[in-house]
Backbone:
């Protein structure tokens, strides 16, 4: 259908979007790369000039980096595990014939619309506070010593909050996928004598595989950049116990005003995200073509 | 959906589902209830479920302390402004990708998706410095610009998947009837695309409203959105649980309502059209 004229027009119409995104992607990235090889501190203006690999050695060599990297992996992995398993369970449950399905969906999906700092603060103060949080009351009710969650289990507490926010997303996507599975297919399997476990394993799981892949991909993109939840609860501490790579860059570059080292951290974060992205895009690309 | 099950099975599943759903919803419910309690009641050692002395004073206190309305207006300007700006840039692009695809269309779409994978911290420092030098730090228009850029890939993708579903034959029929390209767009394409555009608008307003990286790092007082407003409650000052709950409720209520109406679009938008 496309004539030469429409093709030229198509290119023109695409140009603004492509150009702004290209600039948005390239300019800051090149600057980050440039700063990462410079001595550049906002506190000490005397410190200038080419730094070689010094910023990288400083950032990667510091124990805080290794810990942040491990924290990032635990955070992403933990939240993925909770949301995929919990989401599958919830999607299967909500797909059953039950009363009040519409209201249930609204209740379950709601946490996703709560902005991250609110989610973090209501968990921190309303639930996890050892003095007046709900969990503290519950612990006392059972005669136990209330737990000071953010001091004793900082990373775990952050995982709980983030998982609470993303569980609805996984549930909703998996439920949508589940409901597109044809009723005939299920009934046929039932008629052929497949029991619930086999139906789940041979009919439902293969059908859900694609949706699960997509959930993993999208959540990983967002989970690598978890920031606000850490900022308003633990501030990355105690020490570096709940600092992930994203928060480490913020701490180094913005809070400590070390532009060079912060940029080096940023470059490392980009590299990590790219490794994950290539890996996931390949998996999803295969799925999307089908 | 007429699966035949016994009533007892249905009751069992219903009870289980409600129990789980209420558990997940409880932090929000608890926040709503606490917002109407007095500070003393909120932290009482014997917690109450319903507010005993129902009060609205927390909302007034929150407005006095942190100026809710200023932040809410900033949130509205940034989220709607960035979404509309994004739509203006994305509609022509998505149109041409859907109706005049070339060999490279798929690559361009995948590339746009990949820009979304770039971690924000990777570009935080240069953006922060550029904003400082251009005096864009803590301005509403600077924040709107950033928000437009981060959501542009999602807007293009969503519109693309909606436009793809518009049958090409109709456009060709219009063309055969001698419709000019401009008429083709305004009289044929736009009316059919409006529902998709509306869904895209809704989802992206929600995403921009809840964005909490750039809004916190690039603003301080003047241009702060509701995410920044609520973050100012992160360090407790005296009795504050009831006020925090009131502030939280004020920050999430508008978008929670919008969100409930947009569940379906949410799935499509956030999966880049891969799950519908």
Residues:
């Amino acid at each position: 259908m496309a004539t030469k004229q429409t093709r030229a027009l198509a290119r023109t119409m695409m140009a603004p979007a492509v150009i702004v995104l290209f600039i948005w992607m390239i300019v800051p990235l090149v600057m980050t790369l440039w700063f990462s090889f410079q001595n550049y501190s906002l506190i000490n203006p005397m410190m200038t000039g080419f730094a070689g690999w010094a910023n990288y050695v400083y950032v990667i060599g510091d124990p805080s980096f290794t810990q942040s990297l491990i924290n990032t992996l635990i955070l992403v992995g933990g939240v993925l595990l909770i949301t995929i398993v919990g989401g599958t369970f919830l999607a299967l449950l909500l797909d059953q014939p039950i009363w009040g399905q519409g209201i249930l969906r609204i209740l379950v999906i709601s946490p996703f619309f709560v902005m991250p700092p609110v989610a973090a603060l209501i968990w921190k103060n309303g639930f996890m506070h050892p003095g007046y949080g709900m969990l503290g009351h519950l612990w006392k009710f059972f005669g136990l010593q209330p737990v000071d969650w953010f001091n004793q289990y900082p990373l775990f507490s952050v995982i709980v909050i983030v998982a609470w926010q993303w569980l609805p997303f996984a549930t909703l996507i998996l439920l949508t996928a589940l409901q597109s599975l044809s009723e005939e297919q299920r009934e046929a399997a039932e008629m052929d004598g497949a029991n619930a476990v086999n139906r789940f394993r041979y009919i439902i799981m293969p059908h859900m595989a694609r949706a699960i892949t997509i959930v993993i991909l999208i959540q990983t993109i967002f989970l690598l950049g978890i920031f606000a939840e850490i900022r308003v609860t633990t501030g990355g501490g105690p020490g570096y116990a709940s600092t992930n790579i994203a928060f480490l860059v913020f701490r180094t570059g913005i809070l400590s005003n070390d532009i060079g080292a912060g940029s080096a951290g940023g470059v490392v974060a980009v590299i990590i995200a790219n490794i994950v992205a290539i890996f996931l895009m390949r998996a999803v690309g295969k799925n999307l073509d089908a | 959906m007429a699966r035949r099950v016994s009533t007892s099975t249905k009751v069992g599943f219903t009870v289980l589902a409600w129990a789980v759903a209420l558990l997940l919803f409880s932090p929000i419910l608890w926040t709503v209830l606490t917002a109407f309690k007095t500070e003393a009641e909120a932290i009482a050692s014997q917690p109450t479920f319903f507010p005993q002395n129902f009060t609205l004073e927390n909302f007034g206190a929150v407005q006095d302390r942190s100026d809710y309305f200023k932040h809410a207006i900033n949130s509205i300007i940034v989220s709607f402004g960035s979404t509309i700006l994004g739509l203006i840039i994305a509609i022509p692009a998505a149109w041409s990708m859907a109706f005049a695809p070339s060999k490279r269309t798929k690559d361009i779409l995948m590339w746009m998706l990949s820009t979304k994978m770039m971690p924000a911290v990777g570009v935080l420092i240069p953006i922060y410095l550029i904003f400082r030098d251009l005096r864009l730090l803590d301005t509403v228009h600077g924040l709107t610009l950033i928000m437009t850029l981060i959501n542009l890939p999602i807007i293009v993708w969503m519109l693309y998947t909606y436009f793809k579903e518009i049958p090409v034959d109709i456009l060709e029929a219009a063309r055969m009837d001698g419709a000019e390209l401009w008429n083709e767009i305004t009289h044929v394409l736009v009316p059919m695309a409006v529902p998709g555009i509306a869904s895209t608008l809704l989802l992206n307003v929600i995403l921009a409203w809840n964005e909490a990286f750039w809004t916190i790092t690039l603003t301080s007082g003047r241009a702060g959105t509701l995410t920044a407003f609520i973050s100012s409650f992160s360090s407790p000052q005296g009795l504050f649980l009831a006020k925090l709950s009131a502030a939280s409720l004020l920050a999430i209520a508008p978008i929670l309502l919008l969100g409930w109406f947009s569940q379906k679009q949410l799935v499509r938008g956030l999966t880049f059209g891969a799950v519908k």
About this structure: The mean pLDDT of chain B is 84.
